């Protein structure tokens, strides 16, 4: 349930509510809005709302009906906004761009990409060091070496790093380099991994599973939030359907629906979402117009020689063109790029 305090409620009244919750052995979740403080109580559902309703300066008590609680709009009406390294805003009016190759393939490849992206104003570079591949015979990523190159990119360019973590054992190692840890579609329901990511102090980019409903995505986010990490970014990356001309079917409606159901930032991955280079730009525009908070997009210095996902990667020139198009749309939508 959610306890809504009166506008401008005193600290004393708020602490009294928190004390009551803790006395019951439950966990309070405080969120301070512009006007009001609201306190979520996660745990025993048998508790009667009157128990809190009669405390001083409590306006009302509302039960959260959705199965996801901390991720829900009911618990927090304002959008969650994170600042990455005190600089890049994720979740607000700013449309954030994360771009880079599917995989870190070599020191030269990632440094060249980083330099080009930085020149174009991008602040966050993507690149997998650990790659979840369908075939065990294809390129599996450079692993530790890949992390080393990403670290060098960060030191040399100041770009923030988003990279995937595949298993619980790698969480520490990846956190030392990554500014955002990515959970791939195939791992969206890897609950031990989600729990481990709930205990770190880094934002987590959680991709929608390829056969997952939005409720399942939000329940996965709930695992991270309920373990103590409030910085979760949701990502629509397409789902599997009967359609064969595209790799996945990008669900543009997921963006406004997630924004309606949750306060968490929502970004789009038009690269995996379509699997077709020519569709990346139009789908990116649609995602921005639909209210996404940003994009994660695959960009490669020479897509034709990429070791993974070259067919859906943009080269620097077309990526630059895309940014120009997006700026125009952002302007029309009252957003900043
Ligand atoms: C990726 O971003 O490189 C990736 C593997 O994406 P997904 O998990 O969405 O397939
Ligand atoms: Mn990829």
Brief write-up:
The chain is of the alpha/beta class and 337 residues long.
CATH class wording of the largest domain: Alpha Beta
Strands of the widest sheet, in order across it, are: 7-8-9-10-11-12-13-14
Strand content: 15-25%
The profile of the biggest β sheet is:
8 strands, parallel, barrel
Describe the global form: elongated
CATH superfamily of the largest domain: Aldolase class I
CATH topology of the largest domain: TIM Barrel
Small molecules (ligands, ions, cofactors) in the structure = phosphoenolpyruvate, manganese (II) ion
Overall structural class, as computed from helix and strand content, comes to alpha/beta
User: What does the average pLDDT come to?
Assistant: 95
Extended strand count? 14
CATH architecture of the largest domain: Alpha-Beta Barrel
Identify the quaternary structure here.
single chain
Tell me the series of helices and strands, N- to C-terminal.
EHEEHEEEEHEHEHEHEHEHEHHEH
Q: Note poorly predicted spans.
A: none
Which bin fits the share of residues in helices? 25-40%
Cα-to-Cα separation, first versus last residue = 37 Å
Return the domain count: 2
| Rg calc | 21 Å
Characterization of the model:
By secondary structure, the protein is α/β, with parallel strands linked by helices. It has two domains: 2-62, Alpha-Beta Plaits (2-Layer Sandwich); 82-332, TIM Barrel (Alpha-Beta Barrel), CATH 3.20.20. 33% of the residues lie in helices and 18% in strands. It has helices at residues 11-23, 50-53, 107-119, 144-157, 171-175, 191-197, 214-226, 254-261, 270-274, 277-289, 316-332; strands spanning 2-5, 27-32, 37-42, 58-62, 82-84, 88-90, 96-100, 124-126, 160-164, 180-183, 204-207, 232-236, 266-268, 294-298. It has an eight-stranded parallel beta barrel, surrounded by five helices. Helix 3 (107-119) packs parallel to helix 4 (144-157) and helix 6 packs across helix 7. The longest helix is centred in the C-terminal third of the chain and has 17 residues, at 316-332. Bound molecules: phosphoenolpyruvate (PEP) and manganese (II) ion. Residues 102, 272, 298, 308-309 line the site of manganese (II) ion.
């Amino acid at each position: 349930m959610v306890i809504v305090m009166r506008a401008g409620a005193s600290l004393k009244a708020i602490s009294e509510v928190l004390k009551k919750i803790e006395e019951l052995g439950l966990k309070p979740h405080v969120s301070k809005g512009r006007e009001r403080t609201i306190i979520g109580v996660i745990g025993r559902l048998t508790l009667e709302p009157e128990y809190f309703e009669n405390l001083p300066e409590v306006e009302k008590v509302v039960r959260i009906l959705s199965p996801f609680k901390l991720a829900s709009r009911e618990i927090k009406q304002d959008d969650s906004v994170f600042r990455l390294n005190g600089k890049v805003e994720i979740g607000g009016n700013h449309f954030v761009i994360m771009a880079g190759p599917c995989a870190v393939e070599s020191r030269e490849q990632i440094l060249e990409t980083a330099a080009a992206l930085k020149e174009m104003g991008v602040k966050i570079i993507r690149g997998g060091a650990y790659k979840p591949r369908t075939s065990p015979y294809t390129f599996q990523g450079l692993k530790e070496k890949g992390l080393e190159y990403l670290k060098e990119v960060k030191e040399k360019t100041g770009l923030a790093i988003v990279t995937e973590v595949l298993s619980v054992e790698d969480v520490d190692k990846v956190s030392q380099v990554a500014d955002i840890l990515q959970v791939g579609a195939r791992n969206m329901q890897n609950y031990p991994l989600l729990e481990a990511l709930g205990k770190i102090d880094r934002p987590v980019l959680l991709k929608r599973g390829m056969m997952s409903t939005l409720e399942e995505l939000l329940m996965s986010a709930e695992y991270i939030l309920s373990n103590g990490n409030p910085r979760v970014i949701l990502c629509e990356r397409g789902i599997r359907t009967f359609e064969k001309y595209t790799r996945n079917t990008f669900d543009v409606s997921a963006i406004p629906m997630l924004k309606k159901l949750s306060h968490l930032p929502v970004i789009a991955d038009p690269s995996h979402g379509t699997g077709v280079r020519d569709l990346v730009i139009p789908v990116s525009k649609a995602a921005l117009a639909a209210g996404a908070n940003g994009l994660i997009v695959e960009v490669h210095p020479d897509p034709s020689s990429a070791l993974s996902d070259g067919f859906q990667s943009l080269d620097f020139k077309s990526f630059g063109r895309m940014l120009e198009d997006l700026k125009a749309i952002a302007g029309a939508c009252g957003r900043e790029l």
